[in-house]
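Sample 3 of the quickstart, ligand phosphoenolpyruvate:
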Amino acid sequence: LKPFIVAANWKMNKSPDDAEIFLKEFKAPAAAQAVIFPQALCAERVSRWIPAGVQWGGQNCHFEKAGAFTGENSPEILKKMGASWVLVGHSERRTLFEESDETAAKKIKAAQGCGLIPMLCLGETLMERDEGRMQAVIERQLREGLKLADFAQPLAVAYEPVWAIGTGRVASTEQVGEAHLFLRRILKNLTGAAVPLLYGGSVTPQNCGELSRVPEVNGFLVGGASLKADAFAAIAASFN
Ligand code: PEP
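Result:
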């Protein structure tokens, strides 16, 4: 894995045509690994138009490779289509689709078993932060989520405070620094590996410069600002 990873989470946006237009415009960064997470309906088109040096992945997958799971996406097929990555445990999956730490753990195992790199997303809600439970919550999400992981294989973690996702309310550099240092210590003990630790939550071309200089920030997971090729390229270039 490259030392910096800048990932675009397009969520439930962009048609295959929109995806193709984006990929033709997008200038891949020199220093960071760019990763595109399109909705599954665009996977085929993205796999065809992904620029050299850029990777892509699924926003979600099931924890079984195949079978009677109507409406779900197979990690094995994602891999066969050329995906390198899959997001696991995004806060929208946790809050809107009732995903648990246990499901995240199973998905990470399945993803690694298929040769995909899982990116475990975690972060506290505003209420949890206000109640002084930020560290307890993200430690639980990290340890439980990685319970079945193989640390000899690549994986990444994205710290995304729920109150900063899609709200325009970016975490301060102090808040990001504190959470990342805390997660880094646990990750080092747990895995013994250099696991990339990304920040996500209202990252923009305006605020990415100072966030990229926060210790232990190894990249960004970007939602809203990743929908425009030039804005996402500017964010990706903050690690040059
Ligand atoms: C996300 O969904 O992972 C995210 C960080 O979104 P946004 O950048 O829009 O806050």
